[in-house]
Amino acid sequence: MDGPERIAKAFADAKGRAALMPYLMGGFPDVPTSLAIGEAYIDGGADLIELGVPFSDPLADGPVVHAAGTKALENGTTVADVLTICEQLSKRVPVIMMMYTNLVLARGPEEFARRIAAAGAAGLIVPDLPLEESEAVLQACDAAGVALVPLVAPTTPDDRMARIGARARGFVYTVSVVGTTGERAALSDTFGSLVARTKASTDVPVALGFGIGNPEQVAQAAASGADGVIIGSRLVRAVAEAKGDPAAAVRELVSSFSAALTA
Q: Is 61 a catalytic residue?
């Protein structure tokens, strides 16, 4: 199966519940530990993994994820290191790489898409790549069998959402709140309508992310009609705050999120 097919199968295999997609910062707190954390995600019930590549100017990331990326860069983490993590985790679940445009363009879209496909990546998220500038990357990903996953937000107009949805591969990443990544005390009461708008614009699954950080919010996101739920900052914070083995800490958290989807 190519990347889009693997992603479609993961959502289908969730069997009546939303698929669980935790975020992993590659190289945080170091490369071997981040691989162990990814394995713990899968053991805890993850259906897919969003794997972040650390970058010096992560415009979409809040302070927790930004700090983790900074630490990974300080430790010398490279794109090649993160692809090694991808290669291992992708043997068990689809891995969706998340990185910024400069990292893709510096290597050229065709070469970069081939490189991540060779590492087993099923998909690619580029949060600072606008629709109008995405054609070359989309064509390169299509040729390599990698799903280029777009993002939509509460502020995305219906006509633009329709254009994004028509070109979506794998799934549509639906941002639940305006702003950067990070935990919120409460989620918006209106994101059910956002999910409905997104689903009306595309034929691929819709995953909801940003601000989701506890089992109650996971259940709320699933109840909105989302096909998938993405959790990031809460898990990255758990790694940063772990007193012992961070993999054990996140396995317990992911298990609680998985239980919230099956309750």
A: yes
Does the residue 109 lie in any domain?
Answer: yes
Does residue 222 form part of some domain? Answer: no
Q: What is the largest CA-CA distance in the chain?
A: 49
Bridge partners (DSSP) of residue 22 are 231
Domain that holds residue 13: 3-149+227-262
Number of domains present in the structure of the chain: 1
Residue pair 55/103 in contact (Cβ under 8 Å)? The answer is: yes
Q: What is the C-alpha to C-alpha distance for residues 196 and 223, in angstroms, rounded to an integer?
A: 12
This model's pTM is above 0.85 = yes
The answer to whether residue 135 is catalytic is no
Residue 9: give its domain's CATH number: 3.20.20.70
Instruction: Exactly one of 47, 61, 81, 227 is catalytic; name it.
Output: 61
Give me the sign of the Cα torsion angle 44, 194, 58, 130: positive
Q: Mind listing the pLDDT tens digit for each residue in 178-232?
A: 544 444 444 555 578 899 999 999 999 999 998 898 999 899 899 989 999 999 9
Any domain includes 162: no
- 262's tokens: 């099956």
Catalytic residue among 39, 47, 50, 81: 50
